Amino acid sequence: MYQTIKVEKHGHVGWLINNRPEALNAMNNAMRDELAEAWLELDRDPAVRVIVHTGEGRAFQTGADLKEVATDGVGMQRYSDDMLALDLHFTSWHQHVAKPVITAVNGLCAGGGLHFVADADIVIASSDATFFDPHVSVGQVTAIEAIGLAKKLPFEAVMRMALVGAHERMTAQRAYELGMISQIVDPPAKLREAAQELAEKVARNSPAAMAATKKALWAALELGLTDACKVGAQHLVGMWGHPDQTEGPLAFVEKREPLWKD
């Protein structure tokens, strides 16, 4: 049913795969619409506990399709409307995707592709992955993606990427050193295998507890320390009485895998 992406499910792991390799997986309006639908499809599927996002070909994602923007005008207007409304449903924006999201960066990640790095819960990358933000090099403003990254990375590193534009690429090794990614996969051909293995580890945990944990930790990026702890306490107490709180300790004592509620 999708033309620009693929959706696959392997056990409790749902896969969302950018599938415009001939265009380096640049995001046109069709992909934007399909991503928004696919995120919700996977998030609402009770069989899926973790979502992995990656790309086909030699690029993960290269942002807005500049050919569409330059030739029909509709692409830029659509992107403008989304930004003004802060409608980020084409990403794993934490306010509407409750399940853990792993971004697996294969190859090139540029411009708007950094949305998916900034919004993911865990990011891994192949050893040949590179990152850069060309917005200022094509007369555009670097904003939402870099702001998201600035909550996770040293500010100077984000500002350098924003100002250097298309004229410098960050390697996977440098991204790892800065904390943009938490794992480098080598050889690159093993990236999906590594992502599936990591996702299966995450999927073994309580879905309800992980959803609450996501809310608590993402809120900490928007709040001060005391307010974040207060919100975290609310999420913690909110799990009390949930069947998983009884099942977890019982499974530990009985030395078996827990049977979580969806």
Automatic annotation (TrEMBL):
InterPro entries: ClpP/crotonase-like_dom_sf, Enoyl-CoA_hydra/iso, Enoyl-CoA_hydra_C, Enoyl-CoA_Hydratase/Isomerase
Entry-linked SUPFAM superfamilies: ClpP/crotonase
Gene3D superfamilies linked to this entry: 2-enoyl-CoA Hydratase, Chain A, domain 1, Lyase 2-enoyl-coa Hydratase, Chain A, domain 2
CDD domains documented for this protein: crotonase-like
Single Gene Ontology MF annotation: catalytic activity
Family to which the UniProt record says this protein belongs: Belongs to the enoyl-CoA hydratase/isomerase family.
PANTHER family: ENOYL-COA HYDRATASE, POLYKETIDE BIOSYNTHESIS ENOYL-COA HYDRATASE PKSH-RELATED
Protein name: Crotonase
